[in-house]
């Protein structure tokens, strides 16, 4: 009797509002399987959540360990740099002093070039005085030297200019002007005693300046030339 009542009793999941026409459950284990499936789904979701949390925790621990190692390395490098700060500063100061000394030496040599060239010209002209040629005026600059002399022989004047062309460092030496001086007490167009004045223009080669140093042209422009 009880079995029949269980078979024909209205099920709990009947839809409200619909009339119950009776019947019985032919598959009584389906309700148990559905409950087991729900329980298994809950267990799987819980395991997945635990596994995800464990992975996140392991990743956070790994990042913390790496950050700790990086911080330790950075602190070690900073300590090493602090210890090397004084030697590096001293090395920088010595390098700067050496560069300043080299620049000063190059600058001094460059400034001495015009004077050395003037001495070479004077030494060449005084070592073997040319017969019949007398130097009247000399104007010396870094790039060129202008001379004014008096002579009574064209050949002697030409030889004198050739001697200037043989001076070390000279690029070219050529006559710049030729004129006869006026005799005293006469008009401007009167001819003198046969002597004539001539000019010589000596151009110097540009010295080779090391890279990064002060060039000879810059030094000469600041010095204003040597006379």
TrEMBL record:
Q: Which UniProt keywords apply?
A: Membrane, Transmembrane, Transmembrane helix
TM stretches of this protein:
41-62
Lineage, top-rank taxon, reads: Bacteria
Protein's UniProt name: Fimbrial assembly protein
Source organism per entry reads Paraburkholderia acidicola
List the taxonomic lineage: Bacteria, Pseudomonadati, Pseudomonadota, Betaproteobacteria, Burkholderiales
């Amino acid at each position: 009797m009880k079995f029949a009542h269980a078979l024909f009793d209205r099920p709990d999941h009947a839809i409200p509002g619909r009339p119950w026409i009776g019947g019985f459950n032919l598959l009584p284990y389906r309700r148990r399987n559905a409950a087991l499936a729900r329980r298994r789904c809950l267990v799987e979701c819980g395991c997945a959540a635990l596994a995800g949390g464990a992975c996140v925790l392991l990743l956070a621990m790994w990042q913390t360990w790496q950050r700790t190692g990086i911080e330790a390395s950075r602190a070690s490098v900073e300590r090493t740099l602090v210890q090397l700060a004084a030697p590096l500063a001293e090395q920088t100061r010595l390098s700067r002093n050496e560069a300043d000394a080299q620049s000063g030496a190059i600058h001094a040599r460059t400034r001495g070039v015009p004077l050395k060239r003037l001495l070479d010209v004077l030494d060449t002209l005084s070592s073997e005085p040319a017969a019949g040629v007398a130097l009247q005026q000399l104007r010396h600059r870094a790039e060129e030297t202008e001379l004014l002399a008096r002579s009574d022989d064209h050949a002697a004047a030409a030889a004198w200019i050739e001697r200037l062309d043989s001076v070390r460092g000279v690029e070219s030496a050529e006559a710049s002007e030729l004129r006869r001086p006026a005799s005293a007490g006469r008009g401007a167009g009167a001819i003198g005693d046969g002597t004539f004045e001539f000019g010589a223009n000596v151009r110097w080669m540009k010295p080779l300046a090391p890279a990064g140093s002060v060039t000879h042209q810059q030094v000469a422009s600041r010095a204003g030339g040597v006379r």
